[in-house]
Amino acid sequence: xxxxxxxxxxxxxxxxxxxxxxxxxxxxxxxxxxxxxxxxxxxxxxxxxxxxxxxxxxxxxxxxxxxxxxxxxxxxxxxxxxxxxxxxxxxxxxxxxxxxxxxxxxxxxxxxxxxxxxxxxxxxxxxxxxxxxxxxxxxxxxxxxxxxxxxxxxxxxxxxxxxxxxxxxxxxxxxxxxxxxxxxxxxxxxxxxxxxxxxxxxxxxxxxxxxxxxxxxxxxxxxxxxxxxxxxxxxxxxxxxxxxx
Length: 245
What we know:
By secondary structure, the chain is of the alpha/beta class. The chain contains 9 helices and 8 strands. The relative contact order is 0.08.
């Protein structure tokens, strides 16, 4: 890295991937973006660069860890150029994206390049269409959001499984991951809890019964997710009102 006035200076290569972007294939992956950014930097003769990557963050949210670190490095005077695969990788909010590109970067003497959109702040002619592309990116994000919400609503109406992990007492149907079936290992415990509830037992009393009968709680069966809660052997039977589901 260069040293100017005792300060290290580098080019920021920023990559971002949201959950929605993850559905469009390898071309949008973080690894693919890194390769594109690195190739561009080296084609420009830039060898002092640093990657900033936010995986799983929406473009409408600028409160991303690596993005905020990049902004902090810019404010500290360490970054003189920012390169992204395209404008949407920087963000999908028209006003905030525009504020960074048209105000923040110029005020900090930072050159901005969006490779696939042909944007380079060093060439004012290439910046004329940038605001329009940012507007389209924001509309795209809104459209995707509506489609995702609509898809979830339809799946819920069809009684399909919506979560990441199946709830205690159930497991994903091997034939159809969108449906749940009873887990014969843990379902009896769920049925027993319902029987106690029908007898008028409250949460605390049910927990005491399960503890006395040494019936393991969910963490016992899913230690890959909840093992950190099992501190002592006896803790496997210590049912509480906030026991992990």
